Amino acid sequence: MSADSTALTASAHQSTTPALTSVTFDFKDAAQSLISDSLRHHAMVWTRNGNGLVGFGVAAQIHTQGEERFAQARQWFAQIIELAQITDPIARPGSGLVAFGSFAFSFTSTFASRLIIPEVVLGKDGDQAWITITGPAAKLAGLQFADALRMAEAKLASSGIPAQEPGEIELTTGQLTAGSYLEAVTAALGQFEARGISKLVLARDILARSTKPIDLASVLRTLTEQYENCWTYAVDGLVGATPEMLVRVTNGLAEARVLAGTLDRATEGADASGYAQEKLFEDPKQRHEHQLAIDSLTESLNPISHGMLSPDQPFILQLPNVWHLASDVRAELRADADGQVPSALAVAEIFHPTAAVCGTPTKPAGVMLRELEGMDRGPYAGPVGWVDSRGDGEFGIALRGGMLEAENLMRLYAGCGIVPGSEPEAELAESWAKMRPMRQALRAE
C-alpha cells in the first residue's frame, strides 16, 4: 500500500470514509490480451476467458471480522459511493468505482475480511475495454486519458517482482494431517443421523514452501491458461481459479453456478467415453449431494427473487483435473420499498455459506465443522470477487486456491462433500485432486 492510501484504511471500529473521485476512460486501442498482459504479483484480479478486471494500488479499504463482516463492508462501501464523484461513460458491470473483496468463511475466523478500492482498474468485456482511476479529487483534477494511461503503466511497472527461475516446492502438513482428516470423515459419518445432518463438507490444508519468493503473477498466468473456463482471482495474497460462481448480479438479474459431485479425471479410465455419465450423472450418491446444494441455494434465493429458473437436470462440467455435476440458476431480484435491488455483495452475504461448501442443513453443519475440522479456513470457501457502485458484481467461492502467508509460503486448501456412503480414503484422494490446479501452478506436481 502506498503512503497516500494508508490514511484511507478503515476497520470495523473505525468510521473513516474518504471522499473519492473516480474517472473511467474508454480504452479503444487496448489489446485483446489486455487482462492476461496485466497480471502482476501485486494485482487484484478477476478474469475468465480473457475478460475481467485487474486492479492496482489502494485508494481505500476496510477490514472487518465476525458476524457483521459483510454488513460493515456493505455500509462502508455505501458511504463511499454516497460521497464519491463518479464519471463513467462506459456504464457497464465493472466500470466506474469498483471494490475487490475477500471474506472469511466463518465468523469465528481470525482472518480479516476486506473490501479494497484500487487506484487503477483495467477492465475488459468482449470488445469493450476501459481504465478507471480512483483517488482524492485534488489529485485527479483535470485528468485526461493520457494521464490515466501513464498511471496504469506506472502501476504495472511497480507491481511486479524481479523475474527469476521458480524455486523448489516442498509440500508439508498444514493444520490438519491426512490421518486427522480421515478420522474427521469417519467421525462425521457416525454422527449424521443423531444430529440431523445429511451432508458435511470437510476441508483440509497443506503448506507449499518454496526455496525462492513465490511469484503470484506466474501462478495466475498458469491458472488462466489451464483453467480458462474457471474464474481466476487474486485479492491481497488469496489466489486461485474457482469453478463455482456464488452469485453474479447484472441489472437486477442474479445468476449462480452450483457444483456438487466430483470425479477425479486422473482415476484410471476416468476419461473413457461415458465414464463421467455413469459415475456422476447416474450415481445416486452424487446426484443426492448435488440436489442438496441446489435446494440450499434456492431456499436462500426464494425470499429475495421471483421468476427463478433452475434446471431439472444438472450437466457434467469438464475441467482439466476433475469432472463436476453442475447447475446454473438464475432469478430476477426483488426491489425493496425504495425500489432498490440487493447488490452483488448483499446477495453473496445471503447465499454464504452454501451447502456445497458447508453442509445441509447449513447451521448445524457449520457447528459440526468447527468441532471436526480442527482448523481456521480463513478465506477458503468464502466469497471472493468484486462489486461496483451500481451494485453489479461477481462473487465466486474461493476454491481451488491458496493464501500467500509469507513471500515463500502458501497455504493450499480443498474440501469434499461427505454424505452417507462416503468412503474416507476416497474423500482424501478427492481433496488431493482438488489441490492439483494450485500444485501445478506452483510447479509442485
**How many strands, which pairing sense, and closed or not: the largest β-sheet?**
13 strands, mixed
Q: Beta-sheet strand percentage?
A: 25-35%
Total number of helices: 12
Fraction of residues in H or I helices: 25-40%
Structural class: alpha+beta
Distance between the termini: 33 Å
CATH class of the largest domain: Alpha Beta
The CATH architecture of the largest domain would be 4-Layer Sandwich
Characterize the structure shown.
The protein has 445 residues and is α+β, with helices and mostly antiparallel strands. The protein has 2 domains: 3-158, no CATH class; 169-441, Anthranilate synthase. It has 12 helices and 24 strands. The chain has helices at 3-6, 34-37, 69-83, 137-140, 145-158, 178-195, 216-226, 275-281, 284-301, 344-351, 362-372, 424-441; strands at 9-11, 20-26, 44-48, 51-56, 60-64, 85-87, 98-102, 113-117, 120-125, 128-136, 169-173, 199-210, 231-235, 238-242, 245-250, 253-264, 305-309, 315-318, 322-333, 359-360, 383-388, 393-397, 401-406, 409-418. The strands form 2 sheets. Strands 2, 3, 4, 6, 9, 10, 11, 12, 13, 14, 20, 23 and 24 form a 13-stranded mixed β-sheet that branches. Strands 1, 5, 7, 8, 15, 16, 17, 18, 19, 21 and 22 form an 11-stranded mixed β-sheet that branches. Strand 23 and strand 24 form a beta hairpin. The protein is globular, with a radius of gyration of 21 Å. It starts with a helix and ends with a helix. The relative contact order is 0.17.
